[in-house]
Design brief:
alpha/beta, Sc_DH/Rdtase_CS, oxidoreductase activity, acting on the CH-OH group of donors, NAD or NADP as acceptor, oxidoreductase, 7 strands, globular, SDR_fam, 258 residues, 8 helices, Gluconate 5-dehydrogenase, Rossmann fold
């Protein structure tokens, strides 16, 4: 097979949770540019509609479904609706996430549960649903979890404490390894991308508080851009990564190298 054919996603359906903006939309665009039909889920219908219009303006076939991963009872019905209306899910990008910044001694229990329910429990449930209903019966699939460099290390004391977020993303890192090992012989690969600091709605507070400290600690001396995740997402979603599984790959300008 020619190398360019390994990256071809025509005929594939890619489900991207939290895909209406930020990193999710960036990755949806990358997969769509290489032929995938993209399915976006997120909580806010207006943002989904804007994302769909943006993608279709680029010639990308896109479908949107409003869903909140923190509402567990909605997950299976949403997956079933996608399968009925769009088709089998070949690629799952677990991108939806939540965060909360607070000193540990002042961290509200309800905020801890919100972060865990979206970043860990909801991620598990939608992965389980897609595996059961689409990937395992067909013996093939690509799962890409969006973890974070926060799951690979502790928090710089100069930054706002984010214990729940760091803990949840550390869970995603090992979730990736364990799931990859379990399904390695069943045609399904599981990898994660661990972004560093990108200017998104979720990171607005962090960047407002500590952007200078982040840049000083980043060997490349810059934040991530709209072009920095698409290539890796495409690799992990395509046949070019058929022998790659269980990996947690940092895209962070070198933060985790020092």
């Amino acid at each position: 097979m020619a190398l360019k054919e390994l990256f071809d996603l025509h005929g594939k359906v890619a489900l991207i949770t939290g895909g209406s903006r930020g990193l999710g939309l960036q990755m949806a665009q990358a997969l769509g540019e290489y032929g995938a039909t993209v399915v976006l889920t997120a909580r806010k219908q207006n943002e989904l509609d804007e994302a769909k219009a943006h993608l279709e303006g680029l010639g990308i076939q896109a479908h949107v479904f409003s869903n909140d991963l923190g509402q567990f009872e909605t997950i299976d019905p949403t997956v079933e609706k996608i399968l009925a209306e769009v088709g089998q899910i070949d690629i799952l990008v677990n991108n939806a996430g939540a965060t909360w910044g607070a000193p540990t001694l002042e961290h509200p229990p309800e905020a801890w549960l919100k972060v865990m329910n979206v970043n860990v429990n909801g991620l598990f449930l939608i992965t389980q649903s897609v595996l059961k209903r689409s990937m395992v019966p067909r013996g093939k699939g690509r799962i890409i979890n969006i973890a974070s460099v926060a799951g690979l290390q502790g928090n710089d004391p100069r930054m706002s404490p984010t214990l729940a977020y760091n803990t949840s993303k550390g869970a995603v890192v090992n979730f990736t390894r364990a799931l990859a090992a379990e399904f390695a012989g069943r045609g399904i690969t599981v990898n994660s991308i661990c972004p560093g600091y990108f200017p998104t709605k979720m990171t607005q507070g962090t960047l407002a508080y500590g952007e200078q400290a982040i840049l000083e600690h980043t060997p490349m001396g810059r934040l991530g851009t709209d072009a920095d995740l698409g290539g890796l997402a495409l690799l992990l979603a395509s046949d070019a990564s058929a022998y790659i599984t269980g990996q947690n790959i940092a895209v962070d300008g070198g933060i985790t190298s020092v």
